[in-house]
């Protein structure tokens, strides 16, 4: 434990030196922001799991079960099969039968008629590295009734911006279906849930959502698309601070120096920059049940090959559907540990999973359907390193399914004993079930009084 304390101290010193150099949309890094950045980083270090004592039971038991169970029926790698799966993808969106909760996160809360009377139940359902996120469950419910976004400094009560800036925990819901065009990036403060269930809530045509130097946030049930780069200026980033912001990049969701975040059942597409960017020492994050389409740079986890502070980054990517029109970065990783499980990769043009700077990537129970282009069959892509270097990076595939010639180039030693408590690593199913587990990825059609 003494060694761990020394490592923490070193990282804190390094982070303090780095703060003046960070961009992140900050025009002026004043004393208030410096203090908040340090507080957020201390929380991130506490959320990081460096050397726990109960490290192996879940993974090792899983390994024994998966290697001894009966092998599933072999799937065809033919182009005809690929086309059939694309047809299935369209069919699943037309489903009108009884409620089906097909993965462990959804089974926790879906298919219950009373979900709207017990919205806070959702906060107990997160799994993976973001499992400590409870959002605004310790606060009151705030209802967004006004879709406008006219004042970034003194927003009107009833708007989304007003709610996310409050000092106390809040569970934010919506009074009706609405389209929100954010004129400036939306800076979300700690201990908030944005819950779009019950209505169709669309954020498009303007800025996206930003979590910077904050902790404990849940984002659920939104459609976010056509996010654009927007002007900077004086923008309130918390209830008691207004600061100068530079121009926003055009990310749908940006997580910067933050921890204990859960992104769930979001539909994302066609944004100017990334769909989900997680950078600058962010950790303890789960991205689950999302549907992503029509985009180039999908997810970026770690933005710099020189910022070693991202070594604490730990992200779970589970039950997502990577669909039509995607090109690359699903995700693109640096430095940290990334558990990618039970996702359905039905489309990519360049590659699916990539990285640099020695990240550890554990791919389990995913389905990868390669494009017809023979030059793009490889799932994995490594940057800025020759084989003698990247050959030591631990990129491992277990129980994934590969179709239409898809191939995952493994590297490094088998992970063996994993440095995480039981519970941080979700138990994956075989990749042959990925299509079923992700069937309802993206926003859900929830109506009050009926199961979602």
From TrEMBL:
Cofactor(s) this protein cannot do without: Ca(2+)
Species of origin: Vigna unguiculata
EC number: 4.2.2.2
Keywords noted in UniProt: Calcium, Cell wall, Glycoprotein, Lyase, Metal-binding, Secreted, Signal
Pathway: Glycan metabolism; pectin degradation; 2-dehydro-3-deoxy-D-gluconate from pectin: step 2/5
Protein name: Pectate lyase
One GO MF term attached to the UniProt entry: metal ion binding
Superkingdom in the source lineage: Eukaryota
Classification via Gene3D superfamilies: Single-stranded right-handed beta-helix, Pectin lyase-like
A Pfam family the protein falls into: Pec_lyase_N
GO terms (BP aspect): pectin catabolic process
